[in-house]
Write a structure and sequence with these properties.
Blueprint lengths: L1 H104 L2
Length: 107
């Protein structure tokens, strides 16, 4: 009977050692998980700060971008007017030259 009690005690001791090892591994794993979570929180807060700065920059850039787009449209309109005016002058100049030639040669 003493021998069986000794064997049971040894088995209980082995189980307790196994449970302690398991708890130590779990503690190490949880500590690692908490450290990684803290790193993620830090990174997310940095991203949030950066995004706030970017949003402020975009807000500041919006009026400038709208002005540039307006200038572009005005410039395209001016180029269209210059093109039509150049075409009119070219046709008028060609017509004048044709009339001069007709007057010189009498046709």
């Amino acid at each position: 009977m003493h021998r069986e009690i000794g064997m049971l005690t040894a088995k209980v001791d082995m189980i307790l050692v196994g449970v302690r090892r398991s708890e130590e591994k779990s503690d190490a794993s949880r500590a690692s998980m908490h450290r990684r979570m803290d790193e993620i929180v830090d990174r997310v807060s940095k991203v949030e700060l950066t995004m706030a700065a970017v949003q402020d920059d975009v807000t500041d850039m919006r009026p400038v971008t709208e002005d540039v787009n307006r200038w572009k449209l005005v410039g395209l309109g001016a180029l269209g007017v210059i093109g039509v005016g150049g075409m009119v002058l070219g046709v008028t100049f060609a017509n004048v030259i044709r009339r001069v030639i007709m007057a010189v040669f009498g046709r």
